[in-house]
């Protein structure tokens, strides 16, 4: 009887074309046979066609949990591959109202084959078509957290892992393997285990939970699975035990925010140290990112050439376009552009192309927003892009920093400080924390809080003395305070980075919209001895 019901439900599913009807039919199959992976994939595909990436990922999580509970197995390679496409590239470029013929055919085959979804070749695989987007190379797994007191706080430990998985899923540059998938292997040794090899993880996140004295301590670790489980990042969180749901949200958000830059830097170093033979655009991008943040001029210019090569290899890869826009933005901000006007135009083109290629990439959106605010002074457009980025990924510190800077440019300095402090709470030991300090200098300078600006300038300079924006705000505050000896040192450092920088140039390039803020900034530079 059950087999007959499944057969009828499969036939109904195979007959559907519109995504709404596919969703309803797939749910009917799953109500009869919850472990039917073909129906799960049809459901994920239908949500994807409607642009509902979050719902598609939730369907995967439900599938994974049911398979783990019912038979202790992981989702199949086909289901994992579909999840990868959902995480990496967002909605597919078909009309949202109905499924394309290829997807409908795949659903028909899924029903006919008893639940094994066989994707038909995409249009991009045909001769003469552009190459399909590259799949990120990093595979990150989240192990269910472990209570140090078995039988106590097990639900909290599981909830922490699930919330952390959800928070990490908002970062699209790596492939995320869910905690329910990894859970099936939690009691098995990793060395020489074929099931662990099948997962092919590059990194693994795990954690422990313990309670005492009305507080909960959570310790989280990031392991490099290609280096025998070497611990590459760890963080301990101590929180009151009075609101467990808020605790899960906070720890998951901060963990995701801090893991992202650690993985970027580590993968960048790994890509740089490996032979450059037959590189992909993704590998070249990883090589360039650390040099962008170091801001050493020869290395920075080499990073621009690397990004150009990556864009030539894959002109439709959105992250390359976004980071190349960011490189151009830094080129202008550092005063290193041979033709600033042309560089500004190019920056805008690249940022807009990145957003067009992947409207769901939060990092690309916030970079595009910063281009609009910092270079073009188009603040309303910048606010829209930053808000969109934060709605997609509220755990991205860069988006909080850039949106805070835009608010300060508009004169909303209190809101700017709140947003930038949000970034610092998410990632208090961020390897690029000097950018946070530089950003905080902008609203504090406009509020006349010169001592605070000087403290921030000193701290940011210790971490990275080559960011010229730091030295500009730092020097202006010193000018207002009349600290002549320190002025000499900072002015020399600034002019070493930008020999042609003057008060007139500062006034021309300042993104402050309020005249009072602009004059306060330039008056400080003038008092500090910067040439007119």
Topology summary:
Elements: H1 2-14, H2 19-32, H3 37-49, H4 53-71, H5 77-89, H6 101-112, E1 139-142, E2 146-147, H7 154-168, E3 175-177, H8 179-183, H9 194-199, E4 203-212, E5 215-224, E6 230-240, H10 244-273, H11 281-294, H12 297-313, H13 318-333, H14 340-357, H15 362-375, H16 379-392, H17 397-409, H18 413-426, H19 433-446, H20 450-463, H21 468-481, H22 484-497, H23 503-509, H24 515-527
Parallel strand pairs: 1-3, 1-4, 2-4
Antiparallel strand pairs: 4-5, 5-6
Written overview of the protein:
With 532 residues, the protein is an alpha/beta fold. It has four domains: 2-125, Tetratricopeptide repeat domain (Serine Threonine Protein Phosphatase 5, Tetratricopeptide repeat), CATH 1.25.40.10; 139-256, 3-Layer(aba) Sandwich (Rossmann fold); 275-417, Serine Threonine Protein Phosphatase 5, Tetratricopeptide repeat; 431-532, Tetratricopeptide repeat domain (Serine Threonine Protein Phosphatase 5, Tetratricopeptide repeat). It has 24 helices and six strands. Strands 1, 2, 3, 4, 5 and 6 form a six-stranded mixed beta sheet that branches. The longest helix is centred in the middle third of the chain and has 30 residues, at 244-273. It is globular and about 85 Å long.
Strand content: 5-15%
Domain tally: 4
**CATH architecture level-2 label of the largest domain:** Alpha Horseshoe
- Extract low-pLDDT stretches: 89-135
Secondary-structure element order, N to C: HHHHHHEEHEHHEEEHHHHHHHHHHHHHHH
Instruction: Give the name of the CATH superfamily of the largest domain.
Output: Tetratricopeptide repeat domain
Task: Specify the structural class.
Answer: alpha/beta
The average pLDDT value, as a whole number, equals: 80
Instruction: Give a count of the beta strands, DSSP E runs of length 2 or more.
Output: 6
What is the count of helical runs? Answer: 24
Shape: globular
Give the proportion of residues in helices: 55-70%
What about the largest sheet?
6 strands, mixed
Report the top-level CATH class of the largest domain. Answer: Mainly Alpha
Q: What is the C-alpha radius of gyration, as a whole number of Å?
A: 25 Å
């Amino acid at each position: 009887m059950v087999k007959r019901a499944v057969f009828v439900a499969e036939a109904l599913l195979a007959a559907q074309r519109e995504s709404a009807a596919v969703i309803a039919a797939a749910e009917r199959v799953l109500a009869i046979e919850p472990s039917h992976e073909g129906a799960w994939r049809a459901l994920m595909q239908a949500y994807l066609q409607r642009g509902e990436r979050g719902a598609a990922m939730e369907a995967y999580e439900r599938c994974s949990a049911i398979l783990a509970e019912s038979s202790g197995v992981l989702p199949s390679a086909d289901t994992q591959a579909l999840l990868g496409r959902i995480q990496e590239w967002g909605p597919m470029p078909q009309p949202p109202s109905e499924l394309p013929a290829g997807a409908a055919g795949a659903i028909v085959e899924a029903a006919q084959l008893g639940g094994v979804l066989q994707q038909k070749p995409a249009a991009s695989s045909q001769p003469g078509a552009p190459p399909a987007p590259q799949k990120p190379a990093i595979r990150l797994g989240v192990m269910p957290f472990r209570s140090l007191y078995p039988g106590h706080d097990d639900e909290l430990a599981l909830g922490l892992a699930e919330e952390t998985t959800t928070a990490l899923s908002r970062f699209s540059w790596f492939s995320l393997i869910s905690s329910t998938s990894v859970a099936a292997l939690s009691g098995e040794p990793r060395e020489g285990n074929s099931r662990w090899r099948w997962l092919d993880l590059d990194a693994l996140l795990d954690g422990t939970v313990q309670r005492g004295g009305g507080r909960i301590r959570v310790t989280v670790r990031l392991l490099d699975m290609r280096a025998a489980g070497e611990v590459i990042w760890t963080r301990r969180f101590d929180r009151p035990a009075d609101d467990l749901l808020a605790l899960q949200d906070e720890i998951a958000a901060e963990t995701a925010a801090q893991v992202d830059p650690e993985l970027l830097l580590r993968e960048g170093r790994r890509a740089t140290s490996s032979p450059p033979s037959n590189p992909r655009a993704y590998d070249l991008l990883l090589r360039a990112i650390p040099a962008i943040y170091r801001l050493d001029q020869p290395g920075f210019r080499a990073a621009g050439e690397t990004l150009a090569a990556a864009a030539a290899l894959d002109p439709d890869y959105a992250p390359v376009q976004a980071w190349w826009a960011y490189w151009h933005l830094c080129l202008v901000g550092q005063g290193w552009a041979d033709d600033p006007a042309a560089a500004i135009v190019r920056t805008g083109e690249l940022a807009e192309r990145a957003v067009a290629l992947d409207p769901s990439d939060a990092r690309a959106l916030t970079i595009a927003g910063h281009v609009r605010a910092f270079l073009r002074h188009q603040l309303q457009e910048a606010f829209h892009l930053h808000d969109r980025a934060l709605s997609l990924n509220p755990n991205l510190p860069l988006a909080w920093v850039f949106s805070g800077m835009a608010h300060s440019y508009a004169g909303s300095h209190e809101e700017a400080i709140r947003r930038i402090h949000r970034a610092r709470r998410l990632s208090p030991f961020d390897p690029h924390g000097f950018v946070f300090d530089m950003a905080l200098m902008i609203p504090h300078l406009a509020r006349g809080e010169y001592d605070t600006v000087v403290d921030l300038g000193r701290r940011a300079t210790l971490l990275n003395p080559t960011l010229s924006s730091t030295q500009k705000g730092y020097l202006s505050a010193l000018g207002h305070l009349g600290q002549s000896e320190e002025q000499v040192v900072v002015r020399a450092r600034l002019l070493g980075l930008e020999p042609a920088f003057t008060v007139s140039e500062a006034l021309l390039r300042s993104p402050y919209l309020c005249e009072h803020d602009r004059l306060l900034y330039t008056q400080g530079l003038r008092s500090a001895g910067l040439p007119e």
